[in-house]
Specification:
The chain is mainly alpha-helical and about 160 residues long. Helix content is about 45%, strand content about 10%. Strands 1-2-3 form a 3-stranded antiparallel β-sheet, with helices on both faces. Strand 1 and strand 2 (about 35-40) form a beta hairpin.
Length: about 160
């Protein structure tokens, strides 16, 4: 999916969505149907020097609330078990991990030794944070992060609704 530069209005909207000042946004990685930021791409090292492995950060309040409900439902355990039981599913998750690392490297992530080889959401061996996985799926597009795509399909929220 095409990333778009973050405007001052985007930064203000993300800050409103998060309830705090947005930090170190590189670009808007996905937008909702009305054009508001949905997922941001964040610098691999924050302005204060802190390593930040979460390259794609889900910010939209409706999306984050719906994904939180999914996490509370126990769905992650089902996805985790599928990683164990289904080698093709596990291979797709490994590929998502590698794609995530490549995206981070493209914005200077290879220079942040503290997070080398670490992506987000538990990839490639655990399903730990659906927010990160859904954010990656929305940013990268269909087929890149299968767990994120499945979570979106199981979610009560849709990117087609603002």
């Amino acid at each position: 999916m095409p990333l778009t530069p973050a405007t001052e209005a985007d930064i203000a909207e993300v800050s409103k969505q998060l309830g705090r000042p947005a930090r170190d946004i590189v670009a808007i990685a996905a937008r909702c149907v009305c054009g508001k930021p949905l997922v941001v791409q964040t610098s691999p090292r924050l302005g204060d020097g802190t390593p930040f492995p979460t390259t794609y950060y889900l910010t939209h309040r409706g999306a984050t609330a719906a994904v939180s409900t999914l996490e509370a439902s126990g769905l992650m355990a089902q996805y985790q078990q599928r990683l164990v039981d289904d080698p093709e599913f596990a291979a797709a998750y490994q590929a998502a991990h590698e794609a995530y690392l490549a995206d981070r490297a493209a914005i200077g992530g290879e220079q942040v030794a503290e997070i080398a080889g670490i992506s987000a959401g538990g990839m490639p061996t655990r399903v730990k944070c659906l927010h990160a996985l859904v954010g990656h799926a929305l940013a990268a597009g269909p087929g890149v992060n299968l767990v994120g795509v499945l979570a979106l399909a199981d979610c009560s929220w849709s990117p087609k609704i603002c």
